[in-house]
Amino acid sequence: MASEASTVHSPKMKSVKALAESASLSSLPSFYSFTHNAHDEPKISDDAEDSVPIIDVSLLVSGTPEERSQVVHQLNKACSDWGCFMVINHGVPESLTKAMIESFQEFFNLPEEEKQEFHGNHVMDPIRCGTGFNPSMDKVNLWRDYLKCFTYPEFHSPNKPAGFSEIALEFSKRNREVVTVLLKAISKSLGLEESYIDKAANFELGLQLLAANYYPACPEPEKAIGIPSHYDHGLLTILVNNGVSGLQVKHKEKWFNINIHPNALFVQVADHLEILSNGKYRSIAHRALVNKKATRMSIALAHGPALDTVMRPAPELVDNESDQPAYVEMTYRKFLELQQTGRLRSKFQSDIEQSKAV
């Protein structure tokens, strides 16, 4: 039976950008209306101690043994307490990040028919652009357009606009280098060998996904949503944006506005780091709001295991007598496919029959 979502997510549907720029748009179309849970509305803490941790990643590369040890300790606290942190002195040129943002803007500025060349339907399509979030699950269209590309281990990119591929390749490469350093330190922070996560996730062939979300100014932002509360798949996600706020993370049952510092990278713990750590580190719930005044664009780089690698808790982090593994074992590819269809009920499910049922 066709769902409501299959109607409002037609591949031929106008992009949100085109809709927002329509001269006739004065109010939010009904199928973009999102019901906000009053209980889940933002509660922003003014406590000075409740601020996102800042990690100086350069100290992991060139710091003294004492400095490296201190950063490893800071990562342990950041991943266990917050599930996210800000990274500074990371070596990704600010000019490169700005060029990537500008290139994505040029892509979204392309005529509708040219962007349609890159429309994709399946989570494994190496290049996908479109609107909304998850056509098989959503009842409401989201106020955003997106472009997603697999950039590692094989690099994929649209062939337009001019220069996009070259910038995307360098941007992806430089950010992957940062994640490689972080994963080694995070592995040590869990009391594991430095190379443990690399080997367990087969990170040498790990999937890297480059994605941009485009949120035009919205006539009634209080009735719409950019992306609702969700968790990311993979190990770590890096986020940057065009300077317009809208990202919120959930910490201690409160929503916090995240304003990414200039030339900083915002890093989020994702599902498969949670799985590997057996819940010692938790992926963080986050969402994207929209506004009435300015277009917001965010760029995410999701870094995951190799697609056919089975992810499971590290045995060293499971006490066989009292702390059984809390996660179903499955390949990263299977996880993505089940998540996309809505058949992955919970990454926390410990009943192995769950995986057989789906």
TrEMBL record:
Keyword S-adenosyl-L-methionine: no
GO MF annotation: an example: oxidoreductase activity
Coiled-coil ranges (or none): none
Keywords (A to Z) from UniProt: Iron, Metal-binding, Oxidoreductase, Vitamin C
Keyword Iron tagged: yes
Residue spans crossing the bilayer: none
Domain of life from the UniProt record: Eukaryota
PROSITE patterns named in the record: FE2OG_OXY (PS51471)
Residue ranges annotated for the Fe2OG dioxygenase domain, each copy included: 205-305
Family: Belongs to the iron/ascorbate-dependent oxidoreductase family.
PANTHER family cross-referenced by the UniProt entry: OXOGLUTARATE/IRON-DEPENDENT DIOXYGENASE
Full protein name: Fe2OG dioxygenase domain-containing protein
